[in-house]
Every structure is written in structure tokens, then in C-alpha cells.
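User: Fold this one for me? It's Aspartyl/asparaginy/proline hydroxylase domain-containing protein.
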Amino acid sequence: MRASVSEQEELFLNMDLGEASPIWDRARLSTDIREDLAELEDNYDMILDNCQKALNCAYLWKRNEELTSTWFVFPLINQGVWQEAQCRVCSDLVKLLHKLDSLLVDCVFGNVFISMLPANASISEHRGMTNVRLRCHYGVEVPKDTENCFMMVGDEKFNWEDGRCVVIDDSFKYRITSGVTTQ
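Assistant: Here's what I get for Aspartyl/asparaginy/proline hydroxylase domain-containing protein.
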């Protein structure tokens, strides 16, 4: 599936990279990327532990300034720059990230965040600025409410799972719902 021409024209940097897909099947990814995704998934307990440490450092979290919803980020890499204070808190995770050569390439478009979206919240539809990168989403502590906790990328939907990676093309418009609705 490709984004419409008008959507592609909205991108800051748009390159003809062949067939695009909102959510990528791992079989389409190179072996080194698949191995790095597996390395992330194999280290779930350590990643969970580092995320818990991050929660204890409220002063290092930032409210997302681009969107109106309540969404918080703990940036480890922001626009290609490692954030020293956050990296000290999540030192084991940072060591792992440094080993993942295929996933982190020095690039102004490169980011690594721990994100926190409260229950009953959502992130409105938005998109990345370029189609020259793919984005990896990794579930840490995900509500089991698959009906109400999901991401829509283009017209494809997925649910996170604890300790699992999903690769998306964020040049497609996407939105996130955190689950646990009240009636």
C-alpha cells in the first residue's frame, strides 16, 4: 500500500524507495535487522527494569509538545543526539542499543524514546516527516485490552504485546489509543 500523492507531497523528505507498507512484515527486513529485533525481544526483563528506573526520574520526562494529548517521553536519542542524563538512568538499555548496528544509524531523523500514554488517552492522527526511515515500536507494559489499545497506521491496525517489536513506516498517517475505556 502506498500513501496518496497528496500525503506524500506533505513529507519533508520523500524518496522513491519502491513498495511502501504501513506495517512491515519481518520477512521483508534484512537479516541483520531481524536479528537486532530478536535481540531486543530477548532482553525484555532488562528493558522492563530500565523503564521502571526511568519512571522513578519524573524530572527527566517531557510532555510531548507537538500534540494536544497527554503523552510523555523519556528521550534516550533525540534527533540523533544521545541524552546523557536519561542514558545514565537506563544504562543497560543504552549498552544494548549500542550493539544494534542495523537499527540505529546516526541520523538527524533518529530517535529512541520510552513513551508513556495514560489509560483512556489517545494520540491524534499524525505522521513522520520522511519516508527514509522505519520506526520500531516495542511493547513494555501493554494493557490487555486489545479492543481499545491499538495503533492504526494507514488503514492497518495492530496491538502491542509485551516484549515484542512492530516495525512501521511513519510516513503513513497513524494514531494511537491507549485502551481501558469507561462507559
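One thing worth pointing out: Confidence is low (pLDDT under 50) at residues 1-6.
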